[in-house]
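Subject — a protein and its fold
Encoding — discrete vocabulary of local shapes:
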Amino acid sequence: MRALRSLLVVVLLAGGGFAGAAHAASTRARCVQRVLVLSAMPVEIGPLLAHTADERTVSYDGHDFYVGRLNGRDVVLALTGIGPVNATQVTRTALTRLGCGNVGRISAVVFSGVAGGDYIGDVTVPTRWTGDAGHHFVAADPKLLAIAARIAHARLPLEQQAPAGDPACGCVTSPDAVRTVAVTHVPRVNVGGAGQTTDPFSGRALPCVPGGGDVFGCVPCVLQEQAARDSQKLAAGAQAFADPAFLLGYSSSVEDSKHYVAEDEETAAVGAQAAKRHVPFLGIRAVSDGGGDPLGLPGFPVQFFYYRQLAADNAATVTMAILRG
């Protein structure tokens, strides 16, 4: 009998061990490695979501994250909103709240968006970014930079003719359905140099606008029915921007911009959060306001509003090519 009881104990312990191993294996299987792909505005994330398969939405701390597969890669996409404060908050939430289980672990962070630069339609991939006028820099990941350099060398075809876009997020037709003028410079991918992120909002979080179209909207165009929830964000944050001095500061030029190949309001903030957690990072910015404008429009923000869809499409094209590897 003692021998029989000992045998039963061994069997039970072994069974528990197998169950524990099976559970651990199941957990590892669910722990998918995903690339976090961020954009600031609906116009930037739209071309990426249009190519995302098996998409579903999860929410953390009031932010929506779109989980799926993009160009064969497991990804999480999200809108940061405009400005470094918003970008910092959303990136921090993603890197701290998204883990294993139903979402997966973040293996890299890529920002896809538009910016000021040399020639409209070009896509710039800086090797480093600064958020404090050059006092400190955050480096892009060498492996991701190498992929970008290979894509640049291969002359990835980019759009040259500017789409009219979908500024009101009417979604009646594709944002690329109606074409306008072609920029005079054949767009290309440029890897290298430094990018600059500025804060025209003086440390405040610019609120999004419910139903605010493809620039100021709170969610991608296809989801802009969530006005009730996002109205609370607007009411809470808009008062700080009622000062007329805000518009003057936002439209003013940035000093020493000639030293930077791209100028935006989010990428360095995203890179800083990735660096804190030792997550590989890359910023991809297509030029929406710069040279090569056949219409001779004044610079930012007029050129931005006219060429934002062209730039967003080209940034998305390069982002998807980098995801493909």
Q: What stands out?
A: The first strand starts at residue 33 and ends at 39. Confidence is low (pLDDT under 50) at residues 1-29, 244-248, 250-255. DSSP finds nine helices and 14 strands in the chain.
